Amino acid sequence: MKIVNPATGEQIRTVDEDTTGSVAQKFERATRAQREWRNSDLGQRKATLRTFSELIETEQPDLAKTLTLEVGKPLAQSHNELNGFRKRIDFFVDHFEAELEPEVVLRAADLEEVIAHEPLGVIGNISAWNYPYFVGGNVLVPALLTGNTVLYKPSELATLTGLSIVRLLHRAGIPENCIAAVVGGPDAGKLMFEQPLSGLFFTGSVQTGRAVARAAAERLIPVGLELGGKDPAYAASDVDVPKVAAALADGAFYNTGQSCCAVERIYVHQSIYGDFVEAFVAEVRKLKLGDPLDPSTTLGPLARGEAQLVHLENQVSDACSKGARVLCGGKRAGGPGFFFEPTVLVDVDHSMQVMREETFGPVIGLMPVPSDEAALGLMNDTDYGLTAAVYTNDAERAQQLLQELDVGSAYWNCCDRVSPQLPWSGRRNSGLGSTLSTYGIEAFTRPKAWHKRLA
Q1: What are the DSSP E strand ranges found in 351-408?
Q2: Mean pLDDT rounded to a whole number for the chain
Q3: Whole-angstrom distance between the N-terminal and C-terminal Cα of the chain?
Q4: Among residues 177, 178, 193, which one has the least CA distance to residue 145?
Q5: Pick from 180, 198, 161: nearest CA to 22
Q6: Torsion angle, CA of 90/65/251/434, rounded to 10 degrees?
Q7: What is the maximum span of the chain, computed from C-alpha positions, in angstroms?
Q8: The predicted structure's pLDDT at residue 113
Q9: Band of residue 159 on the pLDDT scale cut at 50, 70, 90
């Protein structure tokens, strides 16, 4: 399999893909290893994962460069991801023991009832390329800490980073067969899911997520799905326009818009719309598109290459054919690599793909609304339900709006934000289950009911 730099289109290296036989062998080894790992000392697990975090810090310059080379993430943002990942490791290490503690729910003279929390077994995880440390780590770290073993298929677009994660886990002290990388494209993922796994965890498209859910349902095993979104934001009439315009420009274009929780559509109260559009476009024009290894670059290439360029072109073309106007950008950039200019569209509506279908790139539509109620109706007009943001100086106003939005994460005066302490979950086409928080630890355990009666 070829690893290609999306900033240049050039091949970085090749890697050997897994086969039917090698995947089956890795599963058998993980199954045997799990029997011992689930009984290992919890203190040793903690120490091992802390060592893993320290190794990431030691190797961070090389890890960040590798991440930037293979997915095109601007170098400063690669460092941000690595720093944030270490904080997530800290959270999981600090909290997993409490989630494994047996719960005594009844104690009588001759009877005790206890809930124990056991690992699922061998976990299958297909991860994503846009935040490979975050997305992969949300499964790998709590799964290992709670006594599971893992077959981990990094995205084919972030294979080198995925292999680095596994290498450092082994160096930290995780037994070799407790975490194994499965290398390849979609076929490798299918081979992994053909194994009799104890749980399936996937991050990616809705179409593939449904296939994963069907496979899990056939076997009656737990499934976790993180499938993306069409995340809205609303700027109410009372906001500081320049401040909010800057915040939403960052939320829309950070990581070149290639984030599940990136702002993908913006509604603005009509009383401030003109000023907002002017301020927003001014912020977007400050972005620097170019070599992601250049520390001054803020907008890199599209990791999915030509296919994603065509997708963005189609969205812009569809919008313009229905009356939208391009205020800046609107086309792919010249030169080598897979770059698309940061694009702002106005005169948009919900007949256009750009306001309804996931964009996952540096394109955003701005739409005026006459009232909070109108904004609420448009924000809920979607098949997705990942995040939504409301900007207002009125806490009660924000509360009333956000509680009516069918999303997993509600943002007041912020956006495009994830915290280890809070569950990361989607509704409708945005997925099933939760990662992060204590819910993201519980996801890798199952309860066993103990009835203990004295003789």
Answers
A1: 363-369, 387-391
A2: 97
A3: 63
A4: 178
A5: 180
A6: -40
A7: 81
A8: 97
A9: very high
Region 435-445 average pLDDT: 97
Residue 358 in 3-state DSSP?
Answer: coil
Q: Which amino acid is at 236?
A: A
Tokens coding 352: 């256009």
Q: Which two tokens stand for residue 229?
A: 């979104």
Whether pLDDT at 290 is above 90: yes
Q: Structure tokens of 12?
A: 């970085």
Q: What is the mean pLDDT of residues 112-137?
A: 97
Phi-psi region of 256 (alpha: psi -120 to 50; beta: other; left: phi over 0): left
Q: Which amino acid is at 390?
A: V
Active site (catalytic) residues: 226, 260
- Give the global pTM: 0.96
Burial class of residue 264 in the structure, from the number of CB atoms within 10 Å of its CB (0-12 exposed, 13-18 middle, 19+ buried): buried
Residues 232, 266 contacting (CB under 8 angstroms): yes
Return the pLDDT at 455: 78
How far is it, in rounded angstroms, from Cα 245 to Cα 360? 20
Identify the H or E element spanning 136. helix 132-145
- 262 contacts 230 by C-beta, under 8 angstroms: no
Kindly list the strands in the beta sheet with 445-453, ordered across the sheet, starting from the edge strand earlier in the chain: 103-107, 111-119, 445-453
Measured in degrees and rounded to the nearest 5, phi and psi for residue 327 equal -90, -30
Residue 454, pLDDT above cutoff 90: no
DSSP secondary-structure letter at 229? Answer: -
